[in-house]
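Researcher: Batch entry, complex prediction.
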Amino acid sequence: KAGVTQTPRYLIKTRGQQVTLSCSPISGHRSVSWYQQTPGQGLQFLFEYFSETQRNKGNFPGRFSGRQFSNSRSEMNVSTLELGDSALYLCASSLIILRSSYNEQFFGPGTRLTVL
Amino acid sequence: GENVEQHPSTLSVQEGDSAVIKCTYSDSASNYFPWYKQELGKRPQLIIDIRSNVGEKKDQRIAVTLNKTAKHFSLHITETQPEDSAVYFCAASRAFGTGTRLTIIP
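Model: Structure tokens for the complex:
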């Protein structure tokens, strides 16, 4: 099976702009989670989608939003970019049968976002 | 929401010795505790996980223990090898710890 893919791999934006990142999960995986990774903060959970609805949400401002499509592909949007949004954004997919359960996550290669 | 604390942030161990990384979590409803290894420039990969109905799980040189009452869990790596050098993350459900950079000294 093909792994988790993310596009684009690199992005450079300026403050105030918005950005959309895309994630394609492993075939058959209905759960997609998004994480922000920075050197000092490790992996911070943004949100998780399961069958097109948001299942969990982390402690990020409303500028960060996401959605999931019927084919399980997911997008993450960040509006009004700030310098502190520069990070590696990772998505991960998981084979989940029950909405309440958790299983191993498979991570994509990430999108490196730089905000100038 | 869930909050996970991980210690230590850095750990250096002589090759062949054991390494222990500890995590605590806040939400007693959490029932899934994975550990991920991230090598430099690569994506995190699961190395072992444990569910709340089990107290210990072992896979060759790696073991994880879970104390539900105290809400803490630990990763144990025995007979460490140079290829064990990486950043290790614990997680409770979807909340991750801040990582431990493990360095194996030859």
